[in-house]
Amino acid sequence: MTGSSALLQSELLPEALDISFKLVPSILVIGMLGLFLTIGYVFRVADTDNMWVAGRSIGNVENGMAIGANWMSAASYLGMAASIALAGFYGLVFVVGWTTGYFILLIFLAAQLRRFGKYTAPDFVGDRFNSDTARAIAAVTTFLIGFVYAIGQAKGMALVGLYIFGNYGAYVPGLDGYQVMVVAMMVVTVGYLTLSGMLGATKNQTVQYTILIFAFVLGLFAVGYTNGYSTVLPQLEYGALISQLGSEFSEPFASSSYYLWVATTFSLIVGTCGLPHVLVRFYTVESERTARWSTVWGLFFICILYWSAPAFAAFGTDLYSQNVNPTYGDPGMTGAASEVIVVLAAQLSNLPEWFVGFVAAGGIAAAIATVAGLFIAGSSAISHDIYTNIINEDATQRQQIFVGRLSIVALGALTTLAALNPASSIAALVGYAFSLAGSVLFPMFFLGMWWENANRQGALAGMTTGLTLWSIPMINQIVPTYIGSLEAPLSAGLAQWMPAIGSALITLPIVFIVTIAVSMATDEPSLETKRIVRQCHSPEPMGQQETAEDVVADGGEEVATDGGRAADDAGADGGRAADDDAATEE
Length: 586
Known about the structure:
Elements: H1 3-12, H2 23-42, H3 48-53, H4 60-71, H5 74-87, H6 92-116, H7 121-128, H8 132-165, H9 177-226, H10 234-237, H11 247-250, H12 258-272, H13 276-279, H14 288-323, H15 335-338, H16 341-348, H17 353-391, H18 397-419, H19 426-450, H20 456-477, H21 492-497, H22 504-521, H23 527-535, H24 548-553, H25 578-585
Helix pairs in contact: 2-9, 2-17, 4-9, 4-14, 4-17, 5-8, 5-14, 5-17, 6-12, 6-14, 6-19, 7-8, 7-17, 7-19, 8-9, 8-17, 8-18, 8-19, 8-20, 9-14, 9-17, 9-18, 12-19, 14-16, 16-17, 17-18, 19-20, 19-22, 20-22
Protein name: Na+/solute symporter
Main location: membrane
Keywords: Membrane, Transmembrane, Transmembrane helix, Transport
């Protein structure tokens, strides 16, 4: 290895991790990746319905598993345990924030989004607010979320890949071993996504969920039993260890402020409700009932891992302290080691090499599953929302799919370049994407679905405000890390009160106020738009391929939204036609 590669390795490689080629784990992972490619090929798409929403044919359990795989990224499989291991109590912010967001989705958005019935998150924004500009801003935001979020996934895949395949930095000029693995893993991921689209990605995600959850839970049970930490349920028994791990692990806010915990939790909750690759899962199901139940199943599948992550973090922290160095203090556990604490715990337990490789393979499956959802959402934003709806309205399905696949390749290339030298930990990188989703998209979904008077001008003002405010802490904390002459953060005060990972606590209320104020100061949306919003809350079932817009266009009944009676908007709308008045009073 060259001297420059050695320098990079010292910063990026986890200490104590056995980085060498391992035959059986390599066969396991190569077989797994081959399976993903095969599924992608078998379920390759030729039309836009299957490309973007899987033909709206996915059932609730299958969609729940896809939601789980889509959601439980490298940040959940690796980063959450890493954060708990290093920051103790503060690390639980990810468990609390990410789980709570799904209850809001279940109650306020899942069924309503299915009834609205579009293809993408920007599709909803553009059609609900009757604005191609709003659609474009939402599409760019979706692409940006996918890019920022996927950097953490690429980093997680590369770190785990190093354990399985070893260090090949000496064989590729200009790249170290970590960077070689980033490129290799991203090439495989982009390869199968360009074939499969949403249909193949969904089928893959059910397989990926099965792999990752068995790898994580079986790894946890094996580590707990082998070391005498647990006998039956490690998720409950790990508490006996906590007093031995030091105050940094057990004392609330010993390593961070209460304000940062609240800000981060809030951003993760609202960010969950604004992530395009999560919201699009509600467009893939047969009905609004299926959307609700798939959310319940998804939350159940997610909680299996989330109940287990703190236990894995405790076991790994104790094993690291016994076998490597004290976890806390100087020098303490590095961030690189913490991010593979799940794999490291299995390795330090002297479990069979093939079994440790299986645990590592679960991390790769988790990262690839999430990248699949992110890239499908990002490519659909470019192909469907910008190219087809704004640039070329006469685009054929072949042209749309071609542009979508090009977008996947472009997103993959950008992600790979950024992941070669990541600015933060896996969990933090994902947190930045959540802050963006919570600042820009969630307000539009919530207000657009629950306040029929939210209009085009309000949406444009709110989204622009959200993007601007989100950019400020990112410039303050993240941009300087890529510029050698600057030291991050530029302003310590701003970083304290508006942290990049928790900026939505400040930005979201401002965006809500701006959107509401501008909407109230300008003309109300059309009566047709209001009826579509009301139809999203109707108890009447709709057909598998039907949308709220279709029902309204077909003269569907008005929906009671005001104390059990339909609101009479004809007068407010300047005297609509008589048939509109009649429909309103039905």
